[in-house]
Amino acid sequence: MSILEMKVPSPGESITEVEIATWLVKDGDYVEKDQAIAEVDSDKATLELPAEASGIITLKAEEGDAVAVGQVVCLIDTSAAKPSGSTPAAEAPKAEEKKEEVKAAPAPASAPAATYATGSASPAAKKILDEKSIDAASVQGTGKDGRVTKEDALNATPSMGTPTGGPRGTERKKMSMLRRKVAERLVEAKNTTAMLTTFNEVNLTEVNKIRAEFKDAFKAKHNASLGFMSFFTKAVTRALQLYPDVNSMIDGQEQIKFDFADISIAVSGPKGLMVPVVRNAELLSFRGVEAEIKRLATRARDGQITVDEMTGGTFTITNGGVFGSMLSTPIINPPQSGILGMHNIIERPVAVNGQVVIAPMMYIALSYDHRIIDGRESVGFLVAVKEALENPMELLLNNDPKKALEL
Questions:
Q1: What are the chain's domains?
Q2: Cα separation of 137 and 153, whole Å?
């Protein structure tokens, strides 16, 4: 018998443990080399664990277990013959999160629901009480002989101590390691930074005109959509060059400024919030930004994103508008010092050149670390973003949209 001990590989620097999110095979299954046998969560990403050899597998860790890097999680008997007529264990469907349901306990016999009625409910009252799922016996009637009237029924409210017949279950599930880490980082950002948020609004009329005129040609040429994210990313990289303090971070008693813009883009993945990084976004064209955002978002949503692809950003953009958010105060992504929040676009009346017009408007928000970014820089940065988005032809496309969009 030849036994291979499979140990947890290191997913990246500074990661010392992972969590077994889902076993994709069962104890005793025959697995092939390089077959995905488990999904593991680190505090930065979800990764697949491939079998290091073919053979019969014996699991040594349970789903939900936190295991140290280098710890043995399974054994593979490499001397075991492949079962005759069988195929390798297919990847099991991803198990749903284990849920522990806590059902409401029945009321103790010593404390029954109060009973008031000495008469029956009128037909109108009974209909109202049925709609409210209230037992007529729990309502004190004011009519003749204690009859429950329509007015009694209208005024009746379910008592917290009176069972209504509706579901009262609860669910309890363990948060993933990634979700726990996100929670820790959010609390850390609130507790360790002097976070402040400034707001502005943007008229996206000119951006919409450019997109309407060139989006079809852009799609045909580059197989990518000409979305809002490329305009915002280009506007942000321009503003970061004008206000470099926003593109910096604190390290102990020192401030580190960057002459490049690695833009973290917040996306919603199956395991929670992911923040992949678009490297050197200041050097990318519109096509380059759209292609890279599409690539990273797809990898994040497919659970294929790596730790390296989510570390090292210098500034973050988050778009709550895709979920319908009108206004929010985004939380800084430490150790960065700034984050731009985009919101939904609403057509509303605004004054333009002394005339009231209907325009597509968006509120934008900049949360920043006031320890190294002053009001002048924060407000100036946000105004620069606004200016670029309201005059994109000149400030982002250099008055040559076909060249800028590579059409």
A1: 3-84 (2.40.50.100), 114-162 (4.10.320.10), 178-404 (3.30.559.10)
A2: 11
